[in-house]
Amino acid sequence: MKENFPPGVRPQRGAADAPVIPATPPDPGALAAKVRTLAPSMTRSMQRVAEAVAGDPAGCAQQTVTALAVRTGTSEATVVRTARLLGYPGYRDLRLALAALAAQQAAGVPPAVTADIAVDDPLADVVAKLALEEQQTLADTAAQVDMVQLEAAVTALAAARRTDVYGMAASGLVGQDLAQKLLRIGRIAHAHADPHLAVTNAVQLRPGDVAIAITHSGSTHDVIEPLRAAFDRGATTIALTGRPDGAVTQWADIVLTSSSSRESELRPAAMSSRTSQLLLVDCLFVGVAQRTYESAAPALAASYEALAHRHRPRAARG
């Protein structure tokens, strides 16, 4: 049994085990998306730093770590911790990203727009606002996706003997979507929404297999437990989460970060995060289909043919 690790710290495998893929700093244009995604899990002091750099990248890019700490009423250590949580090795790297973001904005890149849904909004306004939020969530996800991590995930899935996917509630539906997509291109994949069955299956995995945990919060115990069991048995483990510092990442070789719009009373996190998760699932599926095209294409054709009769109109009854 492995010991517990602080949030964001991953245990090290042996030399023969699957390596942990290092995360790369996000693109400057993804900074606002990272702030929106991570703000709910930050302390209030870290939120002040994050809001300052996202709201005034040009001004903050000119400030030293000490000056930014004074501006936000925090400490130098808080500024550095915030930079690292946002995906940058240190404050110097964050300043470079802020300068690049300021240059993009000066060139006319439009700012992100958000729209809250009120309880008395007309239905037409609800449609317009939801469409806007969905577009922003997809744009945020595409902007902040770590291509090194995504490539590693596709490579592992394309070579996997078997893939297990763990997810509860809304994340479980996303897991089912991924598993059925992989099945249709001839990959052996199973989605588990029952925590007991998830662990039972996880302990049967071995090197060459892949286990994927989907949890927006990054702290769902019923998802973390089977991922940890899979990790302990040498399977390549992937976390798809909205919290890259969450507990689930301790047992993940590869971390894919989803995005979400702001949570509200009428739009909970489970609803807003699903759009981002499904985009990442589609990226994984298409990437695997490309890598395994010679076997994926006939498998997909066979599945279409096998189900075609179910989509034909039935003869009218006499």
Q: Can you offer a commentary on this structure?
A:
This protein has 318 residues and is α/β, with parallel strands linked by helices. 53% of the residues lie in helices and 8% in strands. The chain contains 13 helices and five strands. Strands 2-1-3-4-5 form a five-stranded parallel β-sheet, with helices on both faces. Strand 3, helix 11 and strand 4 form a beta-alpha-beta unit. The chain is globular and about 70 Å long. This is Transcriptional regulator, RpiR family.
Write the element-wise H/E pattern from the N-terminal end onward: HHHHHHHHEHEHEHEEHH
Largest sheet: 5 strands, parallel
Approximately what portion of the residues adopt beta-strand conformation? 5-15%
Oligomeric organization of the protein chains = single chain
The spatial strand order of the largest sheet comes to 2-1-3-4-5
Work out the radius of gyration: 21 Å
Put simply, the count of helices is 13
Unreliable residue runs: none
- Fraction of residues in H or I helices: 40-55%
Q: Which term fits the overall shape?
A: globular
- Average pLDDT metric: 84
Could you say which structural class the secondary elements and strand pairing correspond to? Answer: alpha/beta
First and last CA, distance: 66 Å
Number of E-type strands: 5
Secondary-structure blueprint:
Elements: H1 31-38, H2 44-55, H3 57-61, H4 65-72, H5 76-85, H6 91-106, H7 123-144, H8 147-159, E1 163-167, H9 169-184, E2 189-192, H10 195-202, E3 210-215, H11 221-232, E4 236-241, E5 254-257, H12 269-291, H13 293-307
Parallel strand pairs: 1-2, 1-3, 3-4, 4-5
Helix pairs in contact: 1-7, 2-5, 4-5, 7-12, 8-12, 9-12, 10-11
Domain HTH rpiR-type: 29-105
InterPro entries: Homeodomain-like_sf (IPR009057), HTH_RpiR (IPR000281), RpiR-like (IPR047640), RpiR-like_SIS (IPR035472), SIS_dom (IPR001347), SIS_dom_sf (IPR046348), WH-like_DNA-bd_sf (IPR036388)
Keywords: DNA-binding, Transcription, Transcription regulation
